[in-house]
Amino acid sequence: MHDAIRLAHGFGGRLTQDLLDEVILPALSGGKGHEVTLDAAVLSELAPPVVVSTDSFTVFPRFFPGGDIGKLAACGAINDVAMMGARARYLSLGLILEEGFPIEELRRIMLSMGEITRQTGVKIVTGDTKVVEKGAGGGIYINTTGFGTLLYGPLGPDRIRAGDYILISGTIADHGAAILNARENLGFSKTLESDCAPLWDLVAVAADAAGSGLHALRDPTRGGLAATLNEFAQDTGLQLIIEEASIPIRPEVSTFLEVLGLDPLPLANEGKFILFVAADSVEATLGALRGHPVGRQAAVIGRVESGGRRGRVILETRIGSRRTIEMPLEDGLPRIC
Amino acid sequence: MCLAVPLKLLEVSPDGKEGTVDMGGAPFSVGLDLVPEAKPGDYVLVHAGMAIEMLDEPDANEILKTFREYARASDILAPEVDGPNG
Amino acid sequence: MGEASYRSRELVAELVNALKETAAGLPRVRIMHVCGTHEHEIGRHALRRLFPENIKLIAGPGCPVCITPAATIATAIKLATLDPGIILCAYGDVIRVPIGSGSLIETKSRGADIRIIYGIRDVARIARENADRQVIFFSVGFETTAAPVASLIASGLPQNLFVYCCHRYVPAAVETLAADGENPMDGYLLPGHASVITGYGAYDFLPARFGKPAAVAGFEPVDILAGVVSIVRQIKGKKPAVANCYPRAVSQRGNVRAQETMGRVFDRVDAQWRGIGSLPLTGLVLRNDYHQYDALAHFGIGEEPAEDILPGCSCHLIMTGRREPRDCPLFGDPCTPANPRGPCMVGSEGTCRAHYLYTESDDA
User: Fold this and answer.
1) What is the pLDDT of residues C14-71, one digit of tens each?
2) Which chain B residue has the Cα nearest residue C214?
3) Shortest alpha-carbon distance between residue B29 and chain A (Å)
4) Which of B50, C101, C181, C338 has a CA 20 to 30 Å removed from the CA of A240?
5) Which fold has domain C65-170+255-299?
6) Distance (Å, rounded) from C-alpha C321 to C-alpha C60?
């Protein structure tokens, strides 16, 4: 364990997981073990069951093709709640602003958030704003907490079984590629766009079609598909097999990443989710996803097996070989070699 | 070491020093100093933002045919696809 | 484009069959490649899993970021911090390389203006956009990169742009490796894109002087397999040559214009490879005509000393094919990409990192 927080602790990969497993969760539990980490929690003592999830956002650049930090924060909380099978109804909003942050930028960011809430019917009902001195860095930090009512489920890693299939709702790495291009000023296509979007409608369509065959959902944000799949593998102790040739990716994103020598699997997705579905519900679920305007690229990308390398994620490469997909460690930076 | 990718040249600047390649549907500007003979329609190998060579990109069928023949003929030492430089 | 074909499962299977047929009955065959991109692609596609048992493909010192001496990184850090106004431009993979005292990325997090660039021309653009500041281009890489850099320098740099180069020349390194009787290889898989520049003729010494078979290979799975098949066929037929298995890009003479430009801008000198030592005539330094662009000369500083290999690290053995990553006592614990002890675990094409990230599944 390191002595001090490093940037890599925030990437959603191996170091983030270590920090949770070795420091935060045990300490919160009074030093005696900890529970499985989920995207959101069901508050079962509140009736009807309320789902809550919290998330904090600090992204650079703040404005990028396809969205901004405001849209990201609103969709993030809505989607975390959706991954539990709950429709978000209310959001809380916490803002920490650095002295000197341009008010016009703040206005634009709040307009973005407002647009998403109106689009989804979610209400921001409580919030807080603090200002820190100039030099603290970061400009703006947004925390959103989403509250929703449980409509589907229960969903979660403990419902996943060997024999389940793994689906994804659309193309991968769109957000990660757009951010990388914008952040590093690499001068590649301005049309690389984030896929940032609220997901409840698509979740509902899939859940209706799958019925009790829907076992778990998660949106592969920080750390991408690589992190999310590894989290599920570890939580379930099962082996996940992913077919490389089945993973949908836009040609523009794929070429961009090939040119930079980067793997799409650890890159963030902000408008996609993976589904664990019982075998006999796959066809219906896939059909429902593909029948929806934003789910046209949905695909079956893998399956769950017992035996084999427990708790690992295996990639069947398109050339017919196999390797593991590891928990990602850090953001990719462009390579020359 | 050599991360380089074959991309199709779409346009060449009037002085021939820069060009636009097709990056999966999006345009990207590359330097053409090392491939002065490259013209629109050619495939170039792009490394670190510069084209380092022109390529002969056969179509999918030719690729399959060439490498398959190479695999099956146990006495030949290289797949026979002619490059632009022979 | 043809990309799908070069990764076609059925074509790969045919080539794997061809390899198995040719390799049958041969004793253990050790083939060295000298290209970090080859190692990366081999790992990514899990190619070694498809090889017959007796064919061993060994990673040589092919990752230019890994072989950049620690002293060079230390000097780049010094350049970046000489003055708050300086902008240092470098490629993404080199800024993470750790030396005992830190790394460029740590230096960046402490406030130095270090910018990651993808392309050579981005550097000139940054220099033009910041005309009132001094910009230093820290350029590493083999001849694939040195050629575009030479082209940039030859066309004249903005007056606020200086270059700190650490380029290495592969054919000369391979020549020294081939002469090493202690660790003999049975054949060499040659780097596809570096050979685009030099031409495959630059490797004629392998069969001619050392009697070793060689094949130039591209980077798709089909290309790499084709190269390995060629080498094993050459061993079987006992007729070593330099086979061009990447004819769509590589020629015998190479890119003559690129060679001429490099020859105008650079001289070749003996140079250090991290952990390996000095390899003759493998370093490229600016010629006198271009001395005014040299960053060390302009800023009047010398190279900073630094330790190449930290205690316990086996990178120098791994990079010359004398040890496998898994046989390093530090591999995986404590040495991981998150906590690297040597360059091989950091460079995105470092041998140890490629092995760590692309752990091949043991199941059928």
Assistant:
1) 999 999 999 999 999 999 999 999 998 999 999 999 999 999 999 999 988 889 999 9
2) B77
3) 8
4) C338
5) Rossmann fold (3.40.50)
6) 6
- Encoded tokens for A147: 């509250």
Nearest beta carbon to residue C244 from set B57, B75, B78 = B78
**Which domains, and CATH codes, for chain A?**
7-150 (3.30.1330.10), 157-325 (3.90.650.10)
Structural domain boundaries in chain C: 65-170+255-299
Question: Is the omega angle on the peptide bond into residue A48 within 30 degrees of 0, that is, cis?
Answer: yes
Would you call C9 an interface residue with chain A, using a CB distance cutoff of 8 Å? yes
Longest dimension (CA), chain C: 67
State how far residue A298 is from chain C, nearest Cα, in angstroms. 21
What's the mean pLDDT when you consider all of chain C? 92
Contact A199, A78 (CB under 8 A): yes
Spatial neighbors of C318 by CB under 8 A, at least 6 apart, are C59, C324, C325, C328, C344, C351, C352
φ, ψ for residue B56 (rounded to 5)?
A: -100, 110
Instruction: For chain C, say whether B65 makes contact (Cβ under 8 Å).
Output: no
Q: What is the mean pLDDT of each run of 10 residues along chain A (337 residues)?
A: 67 75 68 52 75 89 93 96 95 89 88 91 87 81 94 94 98 94 75 94 98 97 95 95 97 90 93 98 98 97 90 95 86 53
Contacts of C64 in chain B (CB under 8 A): 1
Its pTM stands at 0.90
B60 burial via Cβ count (<10 Å: 0-12, 13-18, 19+): middle
- pLDDT tens, position by position, A7-47: 677 677 787 778 777 776 666 665 555 454 445 677 766 77
